[in-house]
Amino acid sequence: MEVIIRGYLPEDGAGIVRIYKNALETLRKSKGGDHDDYSIDKILSGSDKKILSDLFCRNDIVLVADAEGIPVGFTSFSNRLIDKILKSTYGSNIYVAKEFQRGKIGVNVGRMLVSERKRLMSKMNYRKYYSYSTPESVAFGKKCGVKYYPAHNTYSLNSSLALHYYEFILRPSFLNKIRIEPYLFELSILFGKALGKLKGR
């Protein structure tokens, strides 16, 4: 089965929500994961529209793994003014449908998404990307060459899930040692929540 990586299309929404919901379900403590059922239920209680909005609210470029017209994985990254100024971008987690994980169809969909995301980030002259992953994804992240920074694991403003902060260097820069991104990211979360309250959401 051929898998290609392409940009997001409006009709991908339902498939992406399905992949995301299935991924969250595997994180439950009741299924051997690290996150309590209440936290998972809280995220899943929103409408599909809200879930999509939350997934991509800080990400402007969405990549989809397509298997014969069906979304089987996705990731995204930000491309906003502050990202362009700092030359560092927030890359979301990699999500892959269970039946397409770990090379089950002869290709590694997760690595395909990682490679295309890095290619585009480098083409856009970013020096590094940063993100947060669940404990279950740490091993995959390390295989992809990311470096984890436990001091920045606190993520209290945005999520009730346990998340680990990491970075990946795309090109050398003296700015790479200055770790301002996790603070800016949480400030943006706080600003977004405040704006949401003002709008009565």
Please explain how this structure is put together:
Helix content is 37%, strand content 19%. It contains 7 helices and 8 strands. The strands form 2 sheets. A 4-stranded antiparallel β-sheet has the order 1-2-3-5, sandwiched between helices. Strands 4-6-8-7 form a 4-stranded mixed β-sheet. A hairpin with a 2-residue loop joins strand 2 and strand 3. It is globular and about 40 Å long. It starts with a strand and ends with a helix. The relative contact order is 0.14. The model has no long low-confidence stretch (mean pLDDT 86).
Q: What count of structural domains?
A: 1
User: Segments where pLDDT lies below 50 for 5+ residues?
Assistant: none
Rg (C-alpha, Å) = 17 Å
The helix count comes to 7
The CATH topology is: Aminopeptidase
Question: How does the major sheet shape up?
Answer: 4 strands, antiparallel
CATH superfamily: Gcn5-related N-acetyltransferase (GNAT)
Order of helices and strands: EHHHEEHEEHEHEEH
Approximately how much beta-strand content do the residues carry?
A: 15-25%
Architecture per CATH nomenclature, i.e. the level-2 architecture: 3-Layer(aba) Sandwich
Helicity level? 25-40%
Q: What is the terminal-to-terminal distance?
A: 43 Å
Spatial order of the strands in the main sheet? 1-2-3-5
**Quick one: how many beta strands?**
8
CATH hierarchy, class: Alpha Beta
Structural class: alpha+beta
Quote the average pLDDT.
86
Shape: globular
